[in-house]
Amino acid sequence: MKHCIDIKDFTVDEINELIATAEDIIENPVKYAHTCNGKKMATLFYEPSTRTRLSFEAAMYELGGVVLGFSEAASSSVSKGESVADTVRTVACYADIIVMRHPKEGAPLVASMKAGIPVINAGDGGHNHPTQTLTDLLTIKREKGGFSGLTIGICGDLKFGRTVHSLINAMSRYPDVSFVLISPEELCIPDYVKEETLIPKNIPFIETTSLDDAMPYLDILYMTRVQRERFFNEADYLRLKDTYILTPDKLKNAKPDLSIMHPLPRVNEISVAVDDDPRACYFRQVRYGKFIRMALILRLLEISV
Ligand code: NCD
After folding, report:
1. Pocket flag, ligand 1, residue 262 (CB < 6 Å)
2. Residues 113 and 175 in one domain
3. Please, which residues bridge with residue 222 across strands?
4. Domain that holds residue 143
């Protein structure tokens, strides 16, 4: 049985197929409207979410399926002390596929070993967020036409930002990609990402604290939020949260065809004055999230159209 726990669960060919399906859904939505009739998706969200949960729900409804679940652990038996394993075994009696977000790294992996139905990781702690990465890849494909040869600047909280870890993993599998990793020293990319992905694959990357220095070289600028909920003390968060604020002024040295991305939610790191710049694609990115999740649900439920 296929799950989506880590972006590495999919080969490059499989990712390209998901993107092709998502693009076909964009062109021909009616063809897909009843493909999940009679199917049920459970969304088990132990952490807050707007885009990920609602885009999964919208995706399932647009495929003709239905959705059940909870959006906070406090409203389920989790608050009584039920384990992830017991919760998913229960939910698997009512649903065909599970989407889980959890503050603990590895919880969706445990769920996938117990559920007996496909499980999708919708974000596990500061670890991974494979469906945000699929969203990012579809966005890059639509904005840039492909993946090869791109210089990607990733800026902000590279330590706790789970979307960053999955994105580096995925983009490293395409030819001639290089990274500029822009963060305060305290929030730099974890060693394991360098040691497991960047170094063994000889992917060119530089680490810097300066967004200004990096700007002229970037094809993509992927901004991220400082992940307040993963900090051990509030003072550190307050000190670091506004390290990078993208304003129209800072974009003066950027390439004319730069793509500015952000998984959202944004706090202060992109000024609203940037939103009208045609290079800002973060709201288009949100929209693509639904289509790629439709493709993923079909793939995991083994429904071919
Ligand atoms: C991200 C997440 O939950 O990791 N949000 C999302 O799913 N689009 C990014 C974030 O919370 O900063």
Report:
1. no
2. no
3. 154, 261
4. 130-285
Q: Which atom of ligand 1 is nearest to the CA of 157?
A: 12
Q: Are 45 and 91 in contact (CB under 8 A)?
A: no
Residues 51-91 pLDDT 10s: 999 999 999 999 999 999 999 988 888 889 999 999 999 99
Calculate how far, in angstroms, residue 31's C-alpha sits from the geometric centre of ligand 1: 30
Mean pLDDT value across the chain: 97
Percentage of the residues of the chain whose pLDDT score is greater than 70: 100
Amino acid identity at 39:
K
Which backbone phi and psi does 229 adopt, to 5 degrees? -70, -10
Ligand 1 close to Cβ of residue 125 (< 6 A): no
Number of compact structural domains in the chain: 2
**69 domain residue, yes or no:** yes
Q: Is 156 in the pocket of ligand 1 (CB under 6 A)?
A: no
134 lines ligand 1 (CB under 6 A): no
Q: Within a domain: residue 1?
A: no
pTM summary value: 0.97
Q: Are residues 187 and 110 in the same domain?
A: no
pLDDT band at 128 (very low <50, low <70, confident <90, very high): very high
Q: For 173-196, what is each residue's pLDDT tens digit?
A: 999 999 999 999 999 999 999 999
Same domain, 124 and 145: no
Q: How far apart are CA 271 and CA 281, in angstroms?
A: 14
